[in-house]
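so im writing up the methods section and need the Tetracyclin repressor-like C-terminal domain-containing protein record in one place, dumping it here so i stop losing it
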Amino acid sequence: MARYRPDPPPDHGSVRADLQAWAEQYIEEAASPTGREFLRDMVSGGADGGSAHRGGAYARQRVEVILERAHERGEQVPDLEDVIDLLLAPIVYRILFEPEELRVSYAAELTKSLFPKHRDRRHGVPTEK
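--- predicted struct ---
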């Protein structure tokens, strides 16, 4: 784990597309048999939790890059903690504790939850309906 350094996440032009693509790639890699084993080893790797903390920090850094890039483009971005809680955490839970195969399309469902359904197209602010 100490040597694992992920490539920067690709830019797909919008924060929503970037987060969805990142989550899809995360599912493809981490939900594979090798990925599940790696994730379980990382989480159980020592009483101090160092390996798990480093793994979490890598994921957090990738999300931060996506959010910072979108902010620089002038987009409204979801809160980092919301991305962790609503996008990453459910994926990790299912990989660790659910035996069935995780669909890559689950990433789109989770990403959608980060963005309000109704937005004022001119200002990007949520509207009531």
